[in-house]
Specification:
The chain is α/β, with parallel strands linked by helices and 357 residues long. It is built from 13 helices and twelve strands. Helix 7 links the parallel strand 9 and strand 10. 43% of the residues are buried.
């Protein structure tokens, strides 16, 4: 019956979840990825097409992490390839720009490959992870499969030969309001794996109880969950995050931390209402900065940053290093090369256990 309701310590980490009972390897994740929610989003992030050149540079910086020299003693003519993670979703992009984030990633990957004089696609070290939305009209397993195929087209993953989408994820659970739709989501993502459209399966915004139910269903088909995305940061670390992290650690599921900088609040840029960005995002964040609500946390973070032994240059690096220290894979966004490099610099930050706990 179905119940649907950086440094040495920051190495590549395996995620369980190779399809078909674990055959075929499994998904290798880097310690940090890039979140691409803002790409195409005018409502929250003021995106416009003039940003695309800068976003290509951001992509290239992260994708370049995939090309490292061979280790001593390795018999390899070319570069040793590891994983660069780019997280997106088929709902990313507002209005007429819906799907823009995926389309940009597909284009940027091609351009990056041309610039390097190498082939793109499977084996280039780039991991595309996309989330498929539980839109109310997606009520059959076939619709979910077709949604995956549409995402692959935008990402320019043709599905031919060995080329697959590296990670297909359910964006959120519909169990609380549409349990029959939830079952269709489960069946659909299982079909994607069995049809060879994706290498691994993940979820987003699932708590441990629903995650356990999904795991049991997928296990009946010889499949498993590789990753679970959670809103996870110094401002989002309550019972849900703790319980989900514990469950995932116990079951070999990698936790991906989305919004690890809390929409920019943990960068220190928005210490008061006067500093907030204009528009919807400023309105959404207003209550959090009122009456020095962030002050105590930001001052504590500044004290950590100022400690020379930590090696952090920015508050954002402290926040990201904390997520890393919790054993998660943070996926901060970046709108330009400077932000991208600063985020990756967090891999060199060393927090003590007393900071992380």
């Amino acid at each position: 019956d179905l119940d649907v309701g950086g440094e040495a310590r920051h190495r590549l980490v395996p995620a369980r979840g190779a399809v078909m009972g674990g055959e075929g390897g499994g998904l290798m994740l880097p310690p940090m990825g890039l979140g691409c929610w803002a790409w195409g989003n005018r409502l929250l992030w003021d995106y416009d097409e003039g940003m695309d050149t800068g976003l290509q540079e951001v992509f290239d910086i992260y994708a370049s992490q995939s090309y490292l020299p061979p280790k001593d003693g390795e018999q390899e003519d070319g570069p040793r390839r590891v994983a660069s993670l780019f997280d997106t979703g088929d709902s990313y992009g507002t209005g007429s720009l819906n799907g823009r984030s995926e389309a940009l990633l597909g284009r940027f990957r091609k351009e990056f490959a041309r610039g390097r004089g190498v082939g793109d696609g499977d084996g280039d070290g780039v991991v595309f992870a996309t989330k498929l939305a539980a839109y109310p009209w997606r009520i059959t397993r076939g619709q979910m499969v077709r949604a995956c195929e549409a995402s692959m087209a935008r990402l320019q993953v043709d599905g031919g030969g060995d080329e697959k989408l590296e990670l297909a994820q359910l964006h959120w659970s519909a169990a609380n309001y549409a349990p029959l739709q939830e079952l269709a989501l489960w069946r659909g993502i299982g079909d994607m794996a069995e049809q060879g459209l994706c290498t691994s399966i993940g979820v987003s915004n699932y708590g441990p109880r629903q995650l356990a139910k999904l795991q049991a269903y997928l296990a009946s088909r010889g499949l498993q969950v590789a990753t679970c995305q959670v809103q996870f940061s110094l401002l989002s670390y309550d019972a849900l995050q703790r319980d989900t992290l514990a469950y995932c650690n116990d079951n070999g599921i990698r936790v991906i931390s989305y919004s690890p900088l809390a929409l920019g609040l943990l960068t220190g840029k928005y210490a008061s209402k006067e500093d907030l960005p204009k528009g919807f995002r400023g309105l959404a964040l207003g209550s959090l900065v009122a009456n020095d609500g962030l002050g105590p946390l930001l001052r504590e973070m500044e004290a950590v940053r100022a400690d020379a032994s930590v090696g952090a240059e920015t508050l954002a690096q402290v926040a990201l290093a904390w997520c890393l220290g919790k054993g998660t894979v943070p996926i901060p966004g970046a709108k330009d090369a400077r932000q991208a490099r600063q985020n990756l610099r967090a891999l060199q930050v060393t927090l003590g256990d007393h900071h992380i706990q």
